[in-house]
């Protein structure tokens, strides 16, 4: 599965290291007072996907302005909600209602022991806090990077290439594990990296894997 040429593995976070089914509903319930912000956030992030804003600062400036316009709120209030409320509720929702993939830490240490350099690249920030909420060990990873921090959401390849640079591997020697072909998969293809997709239900005649089968193939060195 991994092939002999790969030296590094980059994991997506949401939907890959945990099953994210139901998270939108949970986030709405946690943000009832801020539902307009949440709706605006979703729409704006979809519009910004794949675009390179050049820097973290430029990305956030455009993001806050766009959400403010959609919600008819002040930019200051949008920024305050996103930085202080959204992420704290995101972390709490994960801690209260979600679980990491079965035996994910065992899989990560297995890969690390075999010499693979590991990273997490997520479109959302606060990766360390979200990993802790799910009980995912950060020690096997050399890099935790958000696409926000580099100013370009997936499927733009910038965040994957930045992570590979930290890991010290070329794109062709880097494998991406994700759960969405249109974002994770396309970003990997745009970066010239390999890609394996995690799905929730088994499908015949496909190169996509449910977590159970993916885990077993890794443990069995297939």
**How many distinct folded domains?**
2
Please identify which CATH superfamily of the largest domain we are dealing with. HAD superfamily/HAD-like
Structural class: alpha/beta
Quickly count the helices: 10
Structure description:
This protein is globular. The mean pLDDT is 95. The protein has 2 domains: 8-18 and 100-219, Rossmann fold (3-Layer(aba) Sandwich), CATH 3.40.50.1000; 23-97, no CATH class. Helix 2 (35-48) packs across helix 3 and helix 4 (75-97) packs parallel to helix 6 (127-134). 51% of the residues lie in helices and 13% in strands. It has 222 residues and is of the alpha/beta class. Strand 4 (174-178), helix 9 (181-191) and strand 5 (194-199) form a beta-alpha-beta unit.
Short description:
51% of the residues lie in helices and 13% in strands.
């Amino acid at each position: 599965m991994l092939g002999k040429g790969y030296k590094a593995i980059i994991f997506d976070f949401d939907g890959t290291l945990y099953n994210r089914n139901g998270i939108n509903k949970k986030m709405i319930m946690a943000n009832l007072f801020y539902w307009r912000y949440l709706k605006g956030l979703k729409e704006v992030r979809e519009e910004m996907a794949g675009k390179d804003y050049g820097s973290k600062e430029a990305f956030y400036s455009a993001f806050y302005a766009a959400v403010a316009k959609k919600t008819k709120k002040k930019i200051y209030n949008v920024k305050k909600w996103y930085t202080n409320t959204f992420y704290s509720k995101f972390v709490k929702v994960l801690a209260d209602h979600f679980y990491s993939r079965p035996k994910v830490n065992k899989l990560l240490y297995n890969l690390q022991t075999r010499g693979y350099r590991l990273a997490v690249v997520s479109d959302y920030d606060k990766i360390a806090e979200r990993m802790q909420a799910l009980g995912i060990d950060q020690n096997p990873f050399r890099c935790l990077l958000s696409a926000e921090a580099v100013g370009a959401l997936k499927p733009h390849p910038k965040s994957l290439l930045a992570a590979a640079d930290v890991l010290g591997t070329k794109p062709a020697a880097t494998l991406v594990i994700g759960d969405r072909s249109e974002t994770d998969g396309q970003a990997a293809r745009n970066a010239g990296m390999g890609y394996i997709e995690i799905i929730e239900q088994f499908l015949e005649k496909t190169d996509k894997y449910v977590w159970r089968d993916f885990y077993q193939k890794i443990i069995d060195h297939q």
